[in-house]
Each structure stands twice: as C-alpha cells, then as structure tokens.
Known about the structure:
This protein has 299 residues and is α/β, with parallel strands linked by helices. 34% of the residues lie in helices and 15% in strands. It contains 11 helices and 9 strands. The strands form 2 sheets. Strands 5-4-3-6-7-9-8 form a 7-stranded mixed beta sheet, covered by helices on one side. The chain has a two-stranded antiparallel ribbon with strand order 1-2. The longest helix has 16 residues, at 66-81.
Amino acid sequence: xxxxxxxxxxxxxxxLRFAISQFNKAGLHxxxxxxxxxxxxxxxxxxxxxxxxxxxxxxxDARVTDTECxxxxxxxxxxxxxxxxxxxxxxxxxxxxxxxxxxxxxxIPRSFIAELxxxxxxxxxxxxxxxxxxxxxxxxxxxxxxxMAHAFENAQIDAVDISTQALAVAHKNVQDYGLEQRIDxxxxxxxxxxxxxxxxxxxxxxxxxxxxSMMELPQEYRHEPENALASGLDxxxxxxxxxxxxxxxxxxxxxxxVEIGHNRAELEQAYPRVPFTWLETSAGxxxxxxxxxxxxxxx
Length: 299
C-alpha cells in the first residue's frame, strides 16, 4: 500500500488525507499528545517536513519531492505497522509551550501537574519566590523539573529517577534548556539517595497503572518503559512509598503534589484519615492531590 501510494500522492493535502485514512483504518490509539487521527497526521507530516507546526493551511497544496514523500510515508508506515507513538518517531513531545526530546528510554511526557505549574500552584503557593528547594520525584525525561525551574525562578531542583537511561534523556533536556546549574539529576529509588535533604515543594508523577489496566494497555503504551507505568495490583505501590516517607523530606511549610491517574477512590479508601486536597485540572479534580507538611502525622 505504501509503495503504491508514493506514485499517487503529490501534495501535503494528499499525504494528510492518506495518513488520516490509514490511521483510522488501523484503529490507532491516540493518547500521547494528539486526540485524533487528523491532529496526529498533521503533526507528523509537518514535523517530518520541517514545517511550522502551527501553519498547516498555507502548505496544504504545496507539492512534495519524491524524497519528502518517501520520508513521510515511512513515518506513516511505522506508526501504523509497529504502533510506535508519534513522539518516539519524531523524538519530540510537548507540554504546553515547552518541547522535550524523548525516546523509548522514557515515558512520553503527559501530566496534569504541568497545567498546575503554569499558575505556580496558586493559591497553595502565594509567594513563588520563596520556593528555594524543590524535588521532582520520578522525573523521567526531566520535563516537570524543567517546568518547575521556570515556575519558581529561585528554586534549586533535584530531579530523581531510578532509571539511569531515563536520566540520560533528562540530562539532554536539562542541557537544552540551559538549566544545568539549577537542576541536579540524581539516580535514586524514590527518596533512598536523598538523605538529609528537605524541600519546600515536592512534585511527583510516579507509576500508577494497576495490574488489570496494564494487561489491557493499547499497543502504543507497550513501547514505553514498563517500570514507569506499572505500580502493583492496585496502582498505588509507588504512591504508598511516597506518602510513607515524604514528610521527613519536606520543610515545615512544605507541600507535596502527586498525580495518581484514576486511583482517587482506591487512595481515599486506603487512607481514610488523610485530608487530601484534590486539585482542579482540565480533566477534573480526581487526578492530582496536594498535602501540606502539617497534614502528615509526625514521624
């Protein structure tokens, strides 16, 4: 199909139509930055042809060279045949206005915490300049640490991950944003390598997929590191560890913010006496909780 198509597709409009048809026919899953076949096809084509990502319309009827057509069709074929997420094909993912290098050593950035950092966690943090030390637990590509550095300009940030491969990707992103002096990348199993450290703010988007959901994941997600997704039978293994230890790493007025996917009911059932504050995101108030240091029981 791809070989036959090359001789018949001449413009970006042709390629866009073809890609959308192939994506829909294959029943692809869209959950890594695009919500539908049109958006994903448009991004993949524009990125492959080095065109502005926000200017499809002026180029729709532009003719492509045979080489360009071949390059785009190769991307479409890999997306359809191997179910590789577009972010891995282009080595780029976006959170708001920030873009990051990604490959299969890290999960593709997606976090409601990114939305909350745009407002500097207001109203829970009223004076962003007073955030001096911060921690991004399970940093992956380093994306949230980088967003934190922009939100809290006085903060020195530790970005922690258990995976040396993930930290290599994070290192590239930290370098790309020129934040080597403000973000320290640390290999650690959660808090294990952070002895004696205390933070004004801890954020975490840890693994939170439960065992049943792991069994049912679309093929696209199976390209991502399993240890960055799976978190035990109920999806709360990592979150339990965070709740058990976080208080001793927070300053007296420190705040913990954790994303937990669709596990709100399970978490509240497991911790009925913990006064979680659920933060409003674009998808509702079920996915990210906040706790202040004073809300933890004393060690």
